[in-house]
Design a protein that fits this description.
With 226 residues, this protein is an alpha/beta fold. Helices cover 36% and strands 13% of the residues. It has helices at residues 54-67, 78-84, 86-99, 133-156, 162-165, 171-180, 191-199, and strands at 15-21, 30-36, 70-76, 107-111, 122-125. A hairpin with an 8-residue loop joins strand 1 and strand 2 (30-36). Helix 1 packs across helix 4 and helix 2 packs across helix 3. The longest helix has 24 residues, at 133-156. The protein starts with 14 loop residues before the first strand and ends in a 27-residue tail after the last helix.
Length: 226
């Protein structure tokens, strides 16, 4: 169901939009972004990052990081997520994002139904990533950043399909967990990961090189160094 356009009581330009990406995945960090758009440098086509193509998100990412008055990333790693829980970790990551802005915001709008406990005047906006341009921009920055990290993580932990599903509990991901085990990138506080730990255990890095101590060297290999 579509919601009406959002009207904010704050009328200045130092308005930060905040959004997160990565609450639901079984692996990888939760990433947040805060963006203050520049009033004299409009950006056309801002929208909920999930409704944009990857190509369009990438193009808008470059435009936002170039034109925005200020932008910042915040994150919580897997260890923090497991220690705090994903909800508290997300709030902490949002706080880190706003705190990292080079321009102090006068007002903050947060995608969702509640704000972290912080000192900035703020309010939540349900489905704000499709109703507030600054939140849309934040959703794009956060998603592109996290997606790029998950593509790189696939190289570190091949076989899980992280580049495709970005760590979410897709069937191919669950199957790989049950076959390959749990990597250091997985959230051990999430039930499917806990189940994989009990059934298959920890992931083991594939052997790529034989240990030199186990190799048989030709007798004449070192003849010129004696």
């Amino acid at each position: 169901m579509s919601l009406p356009p959002f009207t904010c009581s704050y009328r200045g330009w130092k308005l930060a939009g905040v959004d997160e990406v990565g609450r639901g995945p079984l692996a990888g960090p939760v990433v947040t972004a805060a963006v203050i758009l520049h009033p004299d440098r409009p950006i056309a086509g801002l929208a909920d990052s999930k409704k944009l193509t990857e190509k369009r998100r990438e193009a808008l990412f470059e435009e936002i990081t170039t034109k925005a008055a200020a932008w910042s990333l915040g994150r919580c790693e897997v260890e923090e997520i497991d220690r705090l829980n994903i909800y508290q970790a997300t709030l902490l990551a949002m706080t880190r994002a706003v705190d990292g802005l080079s321009i102090a915001p006068e007002y903050v709008l947060v995608d969702g139904n509640r704000c972290p406990r912080w000192h900035w005047p703020s309010e939540p906006v349900v489905k704000g990533d499709g109703r507030v341009e600054a939140i849309s921009a934040a959703s794009i920055i956060a998603k592109v950043t996290r997606d790029r990290e998950m593509v790189a993580m696939e190289q570190q932990y091949p076989g899980y399909g992280l580049a495709g599903h970005k760590g979410y509990p897709a069937p191919v991901h669950l199957e790989a967990l049950g076959r390959l085990g749990v990597t250091p990138a997985h959230r051990r506080s999430f039930r499917p990961v806990q189940e994989a730990l009990m059934t298959i255990g920890e992931w083991s890095a594939p052997e790529t090189e034989a240990a030199t101590s186990e190799m048989i060297w030709p007798e004449d290999l070192f003849e010129n160094t004696r």
